[in-house]
């Protein structure tokens, strides 16, 4: 077994999963697809490589149904054309960045399995997710759909997600390949990225999904180094197919390609949503053998997933599991919500306090608690933060104010909860880093009046917090879905102990971040993206941070973030001891240590393992890199032993001169931390 397979199996085992295996081997599916396409007409082949809305076109003659595709990121995004009576509602789960903040592999499996079951209940064949583009720009409108800034964390979670999803019989689609790290003018952005940065940061999560057996890959809107991803043979044929070894279905993002000949040449399989670019050249291209090859690959993927000849995709009995899915959504919001600050143990609030609790902020009464765009899921049984806090504040009056104009209100209040975030966030535009001015003004007015303020952030990423030192507590709830307000209320009043850890760093000002300056002067982040090559000029976005994003950047620049990667507080406390590292043997070592709950409440901790490079190396390396983690739950006084395996790849870097991964021999430091900047144990390993 190679080291990659060793890591995948360990990852899945920690989630309670075995590797996904298709019931139909690829070779057999490919052979049958070749037989079928040999008998198809040129027009039938063309139909297979040009979508129809959110589907692969049906061909009853060969037993291919209409293959339905639905969007993801917060559950199943229902479309009005879903076959009637099969799925009238779907659970609005917390956004996937909230799932990432849980650092919980087992929960990720339940989350993905629940979404897969809802797809099957509605006869949906393909989920257009998960998204794994790294969080590089805090302003990016789709950060809520992704898995944070670190490639190792994203790789671990996407392997679990893909495996659990596809074991339900729903095909996963990992997206957006590649370097779609902002939404501003995404169709007009040329992302100029070094090969080393691609290898170390932007490809690993895709590679992990591919190794886990993901059925489809969606290409990105942007250009990579001068070529549109959806029509680039460098991106699709060389990087995705040949280098990463992907054999499945490659599809364009909706309306992301412009040249028919480039599409056919690139190794692309399916133009979505209607194949307009290809169909404009159908008379000329339909007899091109490459079209038949594209159709063969589409059929191969459908055959391998069992979409031909097997039982219908719709399994209505799975609707009975919706209450279990609601519970998964609630637990994800509980585990993913991050307690960023808790000055003088302000939280949890006491139930017996009879003083009024003021609730305000632009998200206090809004529902659903979701971002916009393709990833939006309406859900049902929505509850606002105000409703949830009112229900939990037993015996305590709760007062809501949309604005603060009456000083008499403030005189009667000792504590306020401000639920705030961007007014809008979602696909096709970025957002300002700072909150709306009126929201900052509300917080300032409360703190100036001497009121104890708890801020709850509803947002897909980091925001400016000029009031941090004046408020008592800060919770980051991301977009927590239909059960999220209740989960946050339970954390505020103490029936749930917070345990989330940030999957990204939060800078003090956007100017501190590695992506600052990506928008040219004179433009705003929330400009909607242009839709075609004739609309505006191409903007070069230079990834001058190279292999340094997030905590790697802040470490290298010696900049203190407002809140560091991996940070998150609890109502209990944990101690670490007993660190040891085994000898280097068969290209791996085992790191062991213990964690004790030294507090008075049950709680969960995420232990994080970082590797620091050997002192002897001449290569430029990040100060530290996440290479392991484990989430453990402990009762007061309980101790648990943790074992984490490190492989050769965990100590290696991509050498641009050799165009290959390289392991430097010598001494490497291994750090165990509660965050990237709270290291509690360390030791060394010597690799000869």
Report the radius of gyration as a whole number of Å: 25 Å
Q: Quickly count the helices.
A: 19
Uncertain spans? none
Shape field = globular
The CATH topology of the domain at 17-81 and 89-318 = TIM Barrel
3D structure, described in words:
The protein is an alpha/beta fold and 688 residues long. Among the domains are: 17-81 and 89-318, Alpha-Beta Barrel (TIM Barrel); 574-687, Immunoglobulins (Immunoglobulin-like). Helix content is 27%, strand content 20%. The chain is built from 19 helices and 25 strands. Helix 3 (42-48) crosses helix 13, helix 5 runs parallel beside helix 6 and helix 14 packs across helix 18. The relative contact order is 0.13.
Features:
688 residues, alpha/beta, TIM Barrel, Immunoglobulin-like, 6-stranded mixed sheet
List strands and helices in order, with pairings.
Elements: H1 3-14, H2 26-38, H3 42-48, E1 55-56, E2 67-71, H4 96-102, H5 105-121, E3 126-128, H6 151-166, E4 171-177, E5 189-192, H7 195-202, H8 204-211, E6 216-219, E7 223-224, E8 227-228, H9 234-243, E9 249-251, H10 260-266, H11 276-279, H12 282-285, H13 289-304, H14 322-336, E10 338-342, E11 357-360, H15 385-392, E12 398-400, H16 407-411, E13 415-420, H17 437-448, E14 452-457, E15 473-476, H18 484-492, E16 539-542, H19 551-557, E17 574-581, E18 588-597, E19 603-612, E20 625-634, E21 639-647, E22 652-655, E23 660-663, E24 666-675, E25 678-687
Helix pairs in contact: 2-13, 3-13, 4-14, 5-6, 5-14, 6-8, 14-18, 15-18
């Amino acid at each position: 077994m190679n080291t990659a397979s060793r890591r995948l199996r360990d990852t899945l085992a920690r989630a309670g999963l075995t590797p996904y295996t298709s019931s139909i081997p690829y070779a057999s599916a490919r052979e049958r697809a070749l037989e079928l396409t040999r008998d198809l007409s040129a027009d039938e082949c063309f139909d297979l490589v040009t979508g129809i809305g959110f589907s692969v076109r049906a061909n009853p003659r060969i037993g291919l149904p209409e293959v339905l595709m639905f969007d993801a990121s917060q559950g199943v995004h229902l479309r009005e054309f879903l076959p009637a009576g099969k799925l009238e509602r779907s659970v609005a789960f917390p956004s996937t960045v909230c799932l990432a903040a849980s650092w919980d592999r087992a929960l990720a499996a339940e989350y993905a399995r629940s979404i897969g079951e809802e797809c099957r209940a509605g006869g949906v064949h393909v989920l257009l997710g998960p998204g794994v583009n790294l969080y590089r720009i805090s302003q990016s409108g789709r950060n809520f759909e992704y898995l944070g800034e670190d490639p190792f964390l994203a790789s671990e979670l996407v392997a679990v997600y893909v495996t659990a999803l596809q074991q339900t019989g729903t095909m996963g689609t990992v997206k957006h390949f590649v370097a779609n790290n902002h939404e501003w003018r995404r169709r007009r952005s040329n992302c100029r990225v070094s090969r080393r940065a691609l290898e170390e940061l932007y490809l690993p999560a895709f590679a992990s999904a591919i190794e886990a057996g993901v059925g489809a890959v969606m290409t990105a809107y942007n250009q990579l180094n001068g070529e549109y991803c959806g029509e680039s043979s460098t991106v699709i044929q060389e990087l995705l197919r040949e280098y990463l070894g992907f054999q499945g279905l490659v599809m364009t993002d909706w309306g992301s390609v412009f040249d028919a000949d480039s599409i056919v040449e690139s190794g692309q399989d399916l133009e979505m949503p209607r194949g307009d670019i290809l169909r404009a050249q159908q008379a000329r291209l339909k007899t091109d053998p490459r079209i038949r090859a594209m159709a063969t690959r589409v059929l191969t993927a459908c055959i391998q997933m069992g979409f031909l000849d097997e039982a219908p995709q719709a399994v209505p009995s799975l609707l009975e599991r919706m209450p279990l899915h609601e519970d998964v959504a609630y637990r994800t919001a509980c585990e993913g919500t991050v307690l960023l600050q808790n000055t003088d143990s302000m939280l949890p609030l006491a139930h017996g306090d009879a003083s009024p609790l003021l609730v305000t902020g632009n998200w206090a009464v809004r529902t659903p608690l979701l971002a916009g765009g393709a990833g939006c899921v309406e859900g049902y049984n929505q509850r606002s933060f105000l409703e949830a806090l009112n229900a939990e504040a037993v015996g305590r009056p709760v007062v809501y104010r949309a604005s603060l104009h009456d000083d008499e209100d403030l005189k009667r209040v000792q504590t306020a909860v401000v639920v705030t975030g961007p007014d809008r966030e979602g696909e096709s535009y970025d957002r300002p880093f700072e909150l709306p001015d009126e929201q900052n003004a509300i917080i300032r007015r409360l703190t100036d009046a001497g009121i104890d303020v708890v801020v709850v952030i509803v947002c897909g990423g980091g925001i400016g917090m000029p009031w941090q030192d004046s408020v008592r507590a800060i919770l980051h709830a991301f977009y927590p879905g239909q059960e999220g307000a209740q989960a946050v209320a339970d954390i505020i009043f103490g029936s749930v102990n917070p345990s989330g850890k940030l999957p990204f760093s939060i800078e003090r000002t956007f100017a501190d971040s590695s992506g600052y300056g990506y928008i040219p002067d004179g433009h705003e982040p929330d400009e909607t993206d242009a839709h075609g090559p004739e609309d505006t000029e191409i903007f070069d976005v230079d990834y001058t941070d190279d292999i340094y994003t997030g905590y790697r950047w802040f470490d290298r620049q010696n900049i203190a973030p407002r809140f560091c990667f991996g940070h998150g507080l609890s109502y209990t406390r944990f101690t670490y001891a007993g660190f040891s590292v085994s000898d280097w043997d068969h290209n791996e070592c085992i790191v062991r240590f213990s964690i004790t709950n030294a507090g008075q409440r049950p709680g969960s901790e995420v232990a994080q393992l970082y590797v620091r490079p050997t002192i002897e190396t001449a290569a430029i390396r990040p100060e530290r890199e996440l290479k392991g983690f484990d989430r453990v739950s402990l009762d007061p006084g309980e101790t648990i032993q943790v074992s984490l395996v490190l492989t050769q790849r965990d100590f290696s870097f991509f050498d641009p001169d050799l165009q290959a991964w390289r392991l430097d021999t010598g001494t490497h430091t291994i750090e165990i931390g509660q965050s990237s900047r709270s290291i509690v144990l360390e030791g060394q390993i010597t690799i000869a």
